[in-house]
Amino acid sequence: MTAGDNQEDTPPYRIKSAAGAMKDFGGIRRLELPLPFPPGSIHAYLVPQEEGWILVDCGMDLPNTVSAYESAGIRLSDIRQTLLTHVHPDHSGLAARIREWSGAPVRMHHREESALKSLREPEHWLGWQDETLRQAGVPSPMRVRIEVASLGLRRLFPNMPADSYIDDGDVIPTSLGPMRAMLTPGHSPGHLCFYLPEAKILLTGDQLLKPRTPHLEWDAEGCALAEFRASLEDLARLDVEWVLPSHGQAFRDHTVRIEFLLEHSRRMAAQICSLRAGGIESPHDLARAFWKRPMNAFEHRNAVFEMLAYLQHPD
Fold this sequence. Notes:
alpha/beta; Metallo-beta-lactamase, Chain A; 10 helices; 38% helix; disordered N terminus
């Protein structure tokens, strides 16, 4: 990480409080919410609409998350709808409770609701995951630890259906002009970004981060790496002044960051090819050789699934 990666470009902003710090980006408010695991926090965004707010992502269902909203002076009764970039629990965990408190509908891409539905039937989902990991060469003791970790993570997802779906190209009216939904799979099959062309602001969820790089999730029915690269190229064609990601700092020059991520994915593919040429074949062994650091059970699961995504699309 360079010094520049740890600095945020500085627009006019307000800090409302130390807990639940909030900044204003051209009328869009960013609320920092706590996480109990790295990177330690996530950003929810409030886009003005009809004397209220569109909430983009909502944080986890934890007591200190709720208090962060209160500390920032956000009245949940002012939320008109909640849009989810994707349903990973740091983004979606509080959605059901916010809907209960505010009456506001919760919206997502239909692929993300499919993921939530699968979690309501853990036997099928865990069986599929375990067989995938077995075929990827993960030993039985590690698969048991991954299953335990997965069950612990499952309870953090919201137990709810979507009130309605958001499709690629849908336009949501806001007080800052139209906001367009863009399907950007790779990190998650139904991941969405939201673009406000009049404000030249792009809300990117986990698709476009700085300094972190997004995890790619293998999709048996798609091609996560190819879709990730294609969606980055789509984002590069936009006229953007500010990128507002879910983690890390807001930044400018989004095309520079996109080219870095594309080059990073090409270098990673080349390293995997080199490891395979040296005789390392299974996704389990490739993950261990590539990252070369201790990983907890769920980190190892994600590393194996990322290897599967790269092996699905050999360069």
